[in-house]
């Protein structure tokens, strides 16, 4: 267990352990801020290291000519952060109090830690269909993914029939992206019309490689080591049929991991943390910063998450150097409590 003095506040606490969290830790440690990282305990849908821990091959992260597995990339980032003195606790933060200074953070094991600054890097969970074989194949690299941009260019998917599940803009973007590599892309949507914007619909309808399965849900994912097909169910008649595919990309949205904040920082309508100043990671609370997918509802890439982790550490370092909490006027409230979402 890392050395923690509960009486003295930490200079910076980082919550989360994906690319954003570890990059923030590396920068904060090199700045001699002695960061403490709560990497999380893990759950059925999220483990320490974030979504990359469910990705077998990463070919779009700079610096790895032949690619690297998601697990290896995250373990290397973690080890690099440790090399510079980062302390790590394998616990979740379940409650925060940003209304007092130093901030008070409560862990899943009942530990209270005080902090002069906090970097929120808890990421976002991809929404899944909830099918048993879907989860297994997603975790083992068997051709099921929630990120077409991350995985679509892999050799396994080239010149194959691929399925995209969803009907919004993200699903159309994924389908259009996959047409660069696939023989055919089948969009599976449970309704008889898309939710996507008109321009995205028009682009998808115009692409000869994309076809649609309307009023259809995925009832089962087939395959042992790799996906071989889907059992589709008609949402009106209940009739089932099989569709042979070599990949399935689930594009039904993401949920940011912000539930533990309970209105302590301002959130966007979709639940992501709002950073009110462009190109800064500052949140609505001075001294609290956000990085990675928990504040990025647009790019959601490992490299962009790492970039914002760097930014958050630099923002925290400069905020502390300029007086930190002492720079916040005493007569002003520490933070305005806002309703989550």
Tell me what the structure shows:
The strands form five sheets. Strands 3-2-1-7-18 form a five-stranded parallel β-sheet, covered by helices on one side. A five-stranded parallel β-sheet has the order 9-16-10-11-12. The protein has a three-stranded antiparallel β-sheet with strand order 4-5-6, with no helix packed on it. The protein contains seven helices and 18 strands. The chain is elongated, with a radius of gyration of 22 Å. The chain has helices at 19-30, 70-83, 132-140, 148-151, 169-178, 198-206, 302-321, and strands at 13-15, 36-38, 87-89, 93-97, 103-107, 112-115, 118-120, 124-126, 144-145, 161-165, 184-188, 210-213, 216-222, 229-234, 240-244, 247-250, 254-256, 288-290. A hairpin with a 4-residue loop joins strand 5 (103-107) and strand 6. The chain starts with 12 loop residues before the first strand and ends in a 20-residue tail after the last helix. Helix 5 (169-178) runs parallel beside helix 6 (198-206). It is 23% helix and 21% strand. It has two domains: 13-125 and 254-327, FAD/NAD(P)-binding domain, CATH 3.50.50; 128-250, FAD/NAD(P)-binding domain, CATH 3.50.50.60. It has 341 residues and is of the alpha/beta class.
